[in-house]
Specification:
0% strand; mainly alpha
Length: 286
Amino acid sequence: MSERLARLFPFVFVLLWSTGFIGARLGLPHSGPLTFLFVRYGVVIVLLWGIALVSRAPWPQRRMHWVHIGMAGLLLHGVYLGGVFVAISKGLPAGVAALVVGVQPLLTAVGAGLLLGERVLRRQWLGLLLGLGGVALVVANKLGTGFDIHALIPCAVALLAITCGTLYQKRFCPRFDWRTGAIAQFVPTLVATGIAAALFEDLHIDWVPEMVFAMGWLVLVLSIGAVSLLNWLIRHNNSVNVASLFYLVPPCTAVVAWLLFGESFSGTALIGMALAVWGVYWARGQ
């Protein structure tokens, strides 16, 4: 793989990941959040299994490899996405959810220093703080929207899950093939999400065109495309570099929402976007 192509991966990941909130907005009116995710994970596993068999991809060799990859997937996908989707279904604006989850790079930096022994440079701390400030400005106009304060709880759980999942995968997971490794991540996620959906939801889905599009987009673009890139980035970068990319997601989401739904953003948001980009530049040490 050429170095020039590898340099594009972080930006492609941000663009793809930022569309997740848009997919949730389109799909959640037609399904319970956990039911939606359960079906999504099932479709992903079937597609990846076919790809793995046709391409003869190598499978994890040791039992503990399966355990560690599965635990990382449960945190990164099951608890994180489950928390965000439940929060949005309870009326939490996507911008507020993005702001809460936006604390993740700072938490990851602290954890990387304490648990992984990664050194976080002064300029990286400055970049992380700038990025957080930028995210806050981007979503500031959303904070005045009335919502149930209890919707913040699943979002906070999601924040902890993606932080712990990133650190866990970096610490315990060996190098794994993106096809079979993703299956190892999604199988326990499917089981846990299915149990939760059966306990708390009616498992009903309205298969209207909007729902079909949202499901297809989140399966192909997010769960296969973006997740594969995320796994690659975690393997080839330190934790702070990967986490800092999430500061670019809210600005990117705001632009996509403006293009698709006509959602406005203020001059303050534009300043926030610039701060977020500058913060990621400093945090990644480039």
